[in-house]
Write a structure and sequence with these properties.
- With 143 residues, this protein is an alpha+beta fold.
- The chain folds into two domains: 62 residues; 61 residues, no CATH class.
- Helix content is 45%, strand content 17%.
- The protein is built from six helices and seven strands.
- The strands form three sheets. The protein has a three-stranded antiparallel beta sheet, covered by helices on one side. A two-stranded antiparallel sheet has the order 3-6.
- α2 packs antiparallel against α3.
- The radius of gyration is 21 Å and the shape is elongated.
- The relative contact order is 0.16.
Amino acid sequence: MTLTAGERDTLNAMDDHGLAEMWLTYADGEDRARDGRKYVEYLFFGRMTEREADAIASPGVEITLTHPYDVDANALMVLGEHLESEQLAAAYTAPEQVWTAPKWNMTVLNSYRKLGKEIRTVIDDAKQWQPAKVRVKRKAVKP
């Protein structure tokens, strides 16, 4: 089941706080509520994109825009020329005898971006960005 045009118009007219409350209302439902939740997330995505924001403040809901990416592991091999062996070892997991893809720890590598333009360029060029996604979840209730 999908939302009616009137329901979409009502949601479009709401402010961020009202939309967050509606998302909470829809969060526990099924079918029609799922459509409403997805539409609210779509509206949040549009608003954050328009504002060039990565989050919307709301008391009961955490609303963020994530920017996922894949990494070209082979492109990062050049970092061996720029990093100390200990730094490289902290970020890189070599493939094992049983075939596994090589892995890079991007949390560690991103901390190396400040070490120079060449390193920053290699790391940034290896990122294969995916479309941004809205992440909405209930905030943890503090006792």
